[in-house]
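so my prof wants the structure for this chain in the tokens format not the other one, which i didnt know existed until like an hour ago. anyway here's the sequence
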Amino acid sequence: MIEEKKMNTIVTNMRNSTKPKPLPVRANKKTWFFDTPQGVDHVTKVLHDNTAMTPEDVMKLNKESKEELIKEEEKGLLKYDANNIKSYPSDPEQRRRLLNIENLEKSIGVRTDTWKRFVKTGAMPLVPKNFVSNTSMYNAMVDSMEPNERRAYLNEQKIMERKRRLELRQDKIKEFKEKAAIKEKKSAPAKAMAAEIVNSIVHNPIIEEVLNRSKARLEDKEPEYKLPPVKKELGLNRVFTQSKLDEAATLRKVLDE
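here's what i got, hopefully its the right format
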């Protein structure tokens, strides 16, 4: 009985608690079948089998339907915000839309790197059936060469690439020096004025006198007075000469006696 009362008290306190409750876990919502590539293919196949639509019209409808679905899924995506966890790609709804967009793009051969351009311009960047990229053509050309010919060609390409990098580096250095010269020229008048102001402050006798007096006042003593230098005269010392004269006078008195 006592344990049951304790448990009821704990439950009541938990219900009346003011602490924020954790958000409920969002279940992974599945994409509606007819919004997926498989659903669109199923619908167009039924139309092809049970109506008088031509294969060309069915293919056009299939592609246009998938394009519209991609646009609708793009509209439903939230713009990434670090403070909004619902905008994270790990969010179930965001992840569902991103995966469906990826599947729809693959089904109609859309190059994902140009999808934004398609949204802006409306030009569908489809890959042609017999499309051969420049990379494939280059690899085929290199593979068809003889070993010595291929080695010489690749060495030549490396030399040319180094030369291009060197020229690019030199152009950047030249551009940097030109910008630095322009900046130095523009700042020359300001630097000259600043130097003039500093010199007028540093070598100003009035300011030096004020600073000396302020320093003496802070040290609580009068500024030291320096006596003017005494000019020394050349010749015999006066005291020495007078003592010798006195000795001579005394000696003369003794001799006279």
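also thought this was worth mentioning. The chain has a mean pLDDT of 77.
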